[in-house]
């Protein structure tokens, strides 16, 4: 018997079982049922490493300018708050239905390179859209500038800056100045 026959047979058997498993519909894909722990670990590692590799060479611009942070506040209020919350905000209806649940950006700090890449390109099979299809890089960097400040804000500071941003028409939501409403756009 040839040495290659055993590994090829084992591989073919595993592939056949995998195909049968997929077509049998055994795995519950419902968003209200969590993945198996091993599936979660694999998907989280895949997501994390994929983003890290692709974001590694991104050059971060100056993010501390008040105008950029203010613009980002309006964009965040219009496009991100429903899923990623705000200081003092309760769970939103959309967040309760998402799996995996998006991070609460009022409580976590995210590397600016990683945040920019995710905002621009989105993440497949999650609720995170690719905002780079409808927004320029300057607008996306404004959002990054704002989310860097978000964890240190009080609920009142959040309300003040987003009200100021929306009143001053600092947003370019979907390419139209001043069109930042509290609607959910994805």
Provide tags for this entry.
single chain, 186 residues, mainly alpha, Cytochrome Bc1 Complex, Chain D, domain 2, 8 helices, disordered C terminus
Care to describe what's here?
There is one protein chain. By secondary structure, this protein is mainly alpha-helical. The chain folds into two domains: 5-31; 38-173, Cytochrome Bc1 Complex, Chain D, domain 2. It contains eight helices and no strands. The radius of gyration is 21 Å and the shape is elongated. The model is unreliable at 172-186 (pLDDT under 50).
Tell me the layout of helices and strands.
Layout lengths: L4 H20 L12 H19 L10 H14 L1 H4 L8 H5 L14 H10 L15 H13 L5 H13 L19
Helix pairs in contact: 2-6, 3-7, 3-8, 6-7
What's the gyration radius in Å? 21 Å
Beta percentage is: under 5%
Number of separate strands: 0
Q: Overall 3D geometry?
A: elongated
Helical residues, percent: 40-55%
Order of helices and strands: HHHHHHHH
Number of domains: 2
Q: Average pLDDT across residues?
A: 89
Summarize the main sheet. Answer: none
**Overall SS class:** mainly alpha
Q: What is the top-level CATH class of the largest domain?
A: Mainly Alpha
Quick recap of the structure?
By secondary structure, the chain is an all-alpha fold. The chain has 8 helices and no strands.
């Amino acid at each position: 018997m040839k040495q290659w026959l055993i590994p090829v047979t084992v591989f073919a058997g595993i592939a056949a079982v995998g195909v049968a498993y997929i077509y049998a519909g055994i795995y519950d894909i419902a968003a209200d049922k969590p993945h198996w722990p091993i599936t979660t670990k694999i998907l989280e590692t895949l997501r994390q490493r994929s983003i890290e590799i692709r974001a590694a060479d991104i050059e971060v611009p100056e993010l501390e300018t008040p105008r950029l942070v203010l613009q980002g506040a309006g964009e965040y209020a219009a496009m991100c708050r429903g899923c990623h919350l705000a200081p003092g905000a309760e769970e939103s209806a959309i967040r309760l239905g998402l799996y995996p649940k998006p991070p609460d950006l009022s409580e976590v700090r995210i590397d600016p390179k990683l945040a920019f890449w995710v905002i621009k390109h989105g993440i497949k099979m999650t609720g995170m859209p690719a905002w780079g299809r409808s927004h320029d890089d300057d607008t996306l960097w404004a959002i990054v500038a704002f989310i860097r400040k978000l964890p240190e804000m009080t609920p009142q500071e959040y309300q003040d800056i987003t009200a100021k941003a929306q009143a001053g028409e600092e947003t370019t939501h979907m390419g139209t100045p001043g069109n930042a409403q509290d609607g959910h756009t994805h």
